[in-house]
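Appendix B, example 12.
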Amino acid sequence: MKILRSYKLFSFGNRRHIILAAWFAVVAACGFTLKNIAAFEDFLSGFVGVQHMVIPCVLSCIALNGTMLANSANAGFGYKFFRSLPNAEKHFRRAVLGGNIISLLGTAFIAVVGSFYLESTLMLMFSVVLSVVFLSIMNFVQYIENYVVKLVLLMMTIGFAGGIVGFFGEREFTVPNAVVLYTLVICAAVYAVSLVYVLTNSKKFTGKEQKK
């Protein structure tokens, strides 16, 4: 598939993906092992629940940031190779799309696995919401060349993850189904806009001259 081939051009190997997969494997092993042990109930809803929010966000970073760095003269690696490719803009657009697809599939997989041992359905639902919000932000900030601004925006989202866990992690806390549904619809709409934005501006970004 062309999308996967273009994505692999800018993924700089599979090491980071393997490390992330191993990280999640440890989290899932804890979840399955400790599910029926009452003494670890807080651990499951706390540590394991947090990991289910953080790991998809890290996946989004890995999946998209490598592609953007490859096209940045300021990053210091991959730029000349990227620019030497025929149809570089098409490769770039497909790589960004591939990163989005991998992030969404990874988030869905993590949510499905988590549903077997995380009893808080609400926490699991908001872990998906947070992942989609983070991926949307990743799309929106891709063309910002000031890395400090990018870092601040992304760190704010990670901080928001901690707040979500603390607020929605309590088992007795309930939210009307309509609120959950509206939240999902709004997040999906924002994500759709972010995806259109990052793809429609890819030619402008790859075509401009960047000073080293």
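The chain has one domain: 2-206. The chain has a mean pLDDT of 78.
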